[in-house]
Amino acid sequence: MSKEIEVYNAYFGDCIMLKERDDNSNLLVDFGVHFFSDVSSKYGKRKDLMNEIADDISRRYSNGNTSLLITHFHEDHISGLIYMHKSGQSKYKGLFKNIYIANIWNNPFVVASNILEELLLEIEMKKCELPRTTANLFDLLDFLCDNVSSVMLLSKGVTFENGKYITLWPVDGTHENHISGIIQDLKLPSDFEGKLLALSEIVCIYVTRELLRKENFYEYIDENNNEYFNGEFDSKQRIEDMRIVYESLLDDIYINVGEMEQDMSVQIRKLNELNHEYNIVFQNKVCGDENVLFTGDIEEPHMKEIATATDIKLHRQFKYIKIPHHGTLRHYFDYSKYAPQNVIITNGKVNIKSAASYRICVGYGTLNAIHLCTNSNNCCNCSASCTTATSICALGRRLVYSNLYETI
Predict the structure, then answer these.
(1) For residue 148, what pLDDT is reported?
(2) Which residues of 9-29 are buried (b: 16+ CB within 10 A; e: fewer)?
(3) What is the largest CA-CA distance in the chain?
(4) Contact (CB, 8 A) for 287 and 167
(5) In this structure, are residues 318 and 340 in contact, taking their beta carbons and an 8 Å threshold?
(6) At 379, phi and psi to the nearest 5?
(7) In terms of pLDDT, which residue wins out, 215 or 307?
(8) Which residue of 109, 172, 348, 379 could cross-link 375, Cys pair, CB 3.0 to 4.6 Å?
(9) Nearest by Cα to 95 from 59, 51, 58
């Protein structure tokens, strides 16, 4: 099929439309703007940028043939979607034919990892007096609740969009508890882990048995031998009940924040890496002249697993590769063997002192490909060291800035 890709300038965030021109179908991959994004050169606030992108999507893609894929649940991939949902505007309702998300809902430890990362981020942002909008797991559940008939789960080997694409990651893993050590390092109360896992189990039940209507997929009995979620219920109220438990866990951390011996940012980074383990990576199913590889924020060890897999192999060449995690060094992977014709890097300036770790790393600059970057002002690939957003790259690479989007 003949493809076209539109890359929105979400600054330090992802929002990409993958278009199949032959059948006029579209797949929006993520829509979020990181809370660290410095949008001051053109927008007053992040919500102004999200509003402009949301309006453009609703205006040009309300044709009933547009689907949505959420690679994972971090704010720089979902905050725009949550903004659209919370606005309550009718033009955003029923916009997506299908909504694809990772299948994590049979693993309460994974859900717990997502919730704990959100809890710690809220604490850290308030401590540092940094801005952050709410776009957590429960906001996502609320969004999915209003689009329940459209939701489909993806894991390795699953094809979607009428067989056009195949999922390369995540794999269906075992139920391992990766959070106990983090909770111990944070010196949180002994009952904190139990309360967090209880909430995570309830989230799993809610999604699998009620939101996705998979009866008897998961059982949960409380201390009074009462089964949760039997009979009729108010779905929105269930989410609010779960939010109340979430807030109580937030209070537990607030009370004990002074007792945390290790730097909280270290634990957030560990959780961030854990949650990237369930990031969706996909390629087109049938190899051709316009192969695409979308990587979200895949970690380098998992990208190696994908590259060496013998059951589902990567195509030998790609016309388009979306570089993982905004092109930063920590997630670097050498894609040169796949001879990409075009690489997409979603990167912009961030408004924190440790901005160096958020820059586009030198390795991606060596790729013999056409680079389409959202910004040039957070890049390590030449001596220009751009510090302000610009529409001209010193190396002559294509930039989305100062347009809302660019097409390749």
Answers:
(1) 77
(2) bbbbbbbbbbbbeeeebbbbb
(3) 67
(4) no
(5) yes
(6) -135, 145
(7) 307
(8) 348
(9) 58
